[in-house]
Design goal:
It comes from Candidatus Viadribacter manganicus. By secondary structure, the chain is α+β, with helices and mostly antiparallel strands. It is 41% helix and 21% strand. The strands form two sheets. Strands 1, 5, 6, 7, 8, 9, 10 and 11 form an eight-stranded mixed sheet that branches. A three-stranded antiparallel sheet has the order 2-4-3. The structure holds phenylalanine (PHE). Phenylalanine (PHE) binds next to strand 10 and strand 11.
């Protein structure tokens, strides 16, 4: 037809080729302004329409509109493709593999004393013992008098007691409890027999060397009913010690002893092997003292409002730190409380593992 038609075809080919070649949003936008903007090439051609004859204007105008639509559509399509490609790139870069294991929070470790307490709670819990608690600061009555220590008796001093300035209702100075036995008193005062409980916690004595620290931990056990005997005490302790040290057989030796609050009283030694510089429980011909025990003294029952003619029972007390050293091999007790991160990392336990009897309490 005429030259202008040819111009349109050439312009279309040129613009579409450049849209196709544009490789970023900026150049594509520049191209849009160049073709379709107010000063753009297509707009410039629109301005020629006025000078044309009505026929020419009709064909040329229609052709221009088609060109305008084609270029617009090409630009829109290209823009969408670019946006999609950009999104793809972003998703790829930020991809998260949800099948990877989570990053474990750095929780530190469980202190061996806490671990052993959990183990003992699992062992005695399985045997039907409840867990009782008492405060670190005790009255003279609970720590001594109710436990049949005679008033002002030097036995109070043999415990290397920390006496406080504060006085209890009885006018006697309060103490940092020297053993967990006052929790026997607390339990008997608030609960009628049958009683079957353990209590674990801090205890305090003025003492410090490789196997003694001024603060240490004890576990107390108390059973009060109408029939329990020394034989029951013995079988419970054997079962508990076997479960704790995870050994099939263990020898216990009951040696006569004296505690004001039990009669008869016995110190208990566990059979072990001390050759080779390391103590191994459950083998060998050596003995190691691990606990105090006995039948609860009638005077203690009386002090706690329990009729000794009707009720009887046994009690035992063990050092928890000592139990931890024997099982997990720490040589010096003082390290337990030095807050040395290297020691804690080495001897600490995972917070994700709970002691239970099924898998062996220590695993
Ligand atoms: N309380 C005693 C001590 O600390 C241990 C013990 C508890 C003894 C219960 C007998 C009965 O040495």
């Amino acid at each position: 037809m005429n030259g202008q038609t040819t111009d349109l075809a050439a312009l279309e080919a040129d613009l579409l080729a450049r849209v196709d070649a544009a490789n970023d949003e900026t150049s594509l936008e520049a191209l849009r302004v160049e073709a379709l903007g107010k000063q753009g090439s297509i707009s410039a051609l629109m301005k020629n329409l006025g000078a044309m004859s009505p026929d020419e204007r009709k064909t040329f105008g229609a052709g221009l509109n088609v060109l305008k639509d084609k270029v617009t559509e090409a630009i829109v399509t290209k823009k969408a493709a670019m946006a999609e490609a950009a999104l793809d790139r972003q998703l790829q870069a930020e991809a998260v593999d949800v099948t990877l294991p989570p990053v474990r929070p750095r929780l530190g470790t469980i202190h061996p004393v806490s671990q052993v307490m959990e183990e003992l709670a699992a062992i005695f819990g399985e045997m039907g013992f409840t867990v009782e608690e008492g405060p670190d600061i005790e009255t003279d009555f609970n720590n001594f008098t109710a436990l049949n220590f005679p008033p002002n008796h030097p036995a109070r001093e043999t415990h290397d007691t920390f006496f406080l300035d504060a006085k209890g209702e009885d006018g006697a100075r309060k103490v940092l409890r020297t053993h967990t036995s006052p929790v026997q008193v607390r339990t008997m005062l608030k609960q009628k027999p049958p009683i079957r409980m353990i209590c674990m916690g801090r205890t305090f004595r003025k003492d410090s060397d490789a196997t003694h620290t001024p603060m240490f931990h004890q576990i107390e056990g108390l059973v009060i009913d109408e029939t329990s005997t020394m034989a029951d005490l013995k079988s419970v302790l054997i079962a508990a010690i076997k479960a704790y040290f995870e050994v099939d057989d263990v020898k216990l030796r009951f040696r006569p002893h004296h505690f004001p609050f039990t009669e008869p009283s016995a110190e208990v030694d566990v059979g072990c092997d001390k050759s080779g510089g390391q103590i191994k429980i459950g083998q060998g011909d050596d003995w190691l003292e691990i606990l105090g025990s006995g039948m609860v003294h009638p005077n203690v029952l009386k002090s706690c409002g329990i009729d000794p003619e009707k009720y009887q029972g046994y009690a035992f007390g063990m050092g928890i730190d000592r139990l931890a050293m024997l099982k997990y091999g720490m040589p010096d007790l003082r390290d337990f409380f030095a807050a040395d991160e290297r020691w804690l990392k080495h001897y600490g336990f995972s917070p994700f593992l709970l002691p239970g009897l099924a898998q062996g309490v220590g695993s």
